[in-house]
Amino acid sequence: MTDPTGPAPALTLAQGDITREHADALVNAANSSLLGGGGVDGAIHRRGGPAVLAACRDLRASRYGRGLPTGQAVATTAGDLDARWVIHTVGPVYGAPGADPSLLASCYRESLRVADELGARTVAFPAISTGAYGWPLDEAARIAVATVRATPTRVEEVRFVLFDDRAHAAFAAQLD
């Protein structure tokens, strides 16, 4: 593992579909099965094609038989996406037993750790846990931005790719 002691990454915002982004690594707001689902997870699997699903199946068969734990991250190929890797992370479900902000922060921290191990210089994140998992957008944006700012990394650019105006505004407010 590298010693992530570089300068803080540039934090940028984009609005749109994360599967259309060009970056070394795209972060997938995955479910614990790693086998696809709705929202960002389904979109990454559809656009990434069969190579992403095959890599996730391999992970399930080897290291993650019970699924990827909440707050952890693991990388696969990016398949047909315009990236080298997909970093899958499982966000917490808001209001579920045991879900707390530290698990959401862990998704960002662990994804950056994996990015460092891969040598990724640019990483694109969605707004993890804010869709079907119900995390309040303003709180999720605060946790995401604060965690990325506080996490030592060799990543040079962290891009938050937000699907709509509301999400973009929430993250923009945290960058100001």
From TrEMBL:
<dbReference type="InterPro" id="IPR043472">
    <property type="entry name" value="Macro_dom-like"/>
</dbReference>
<dbReference type="InterPro" id="IPR002589">
    <property type="entry name" value="Macro_dom"/>
</dbReference>
<feature type="domain" description="Macro">
    <location>
        <begin position="1"/>
        <end position="176"/>
    </location>
</feature>
<protein>
    <submittedName>
        <fullName>Macro domain-containing protein</fullName>
    </submittedName>
</protein>
<dbReference type="Pfam" id="PF01661">
    <property type="entry name" value="Macro"/>
</dbReference>
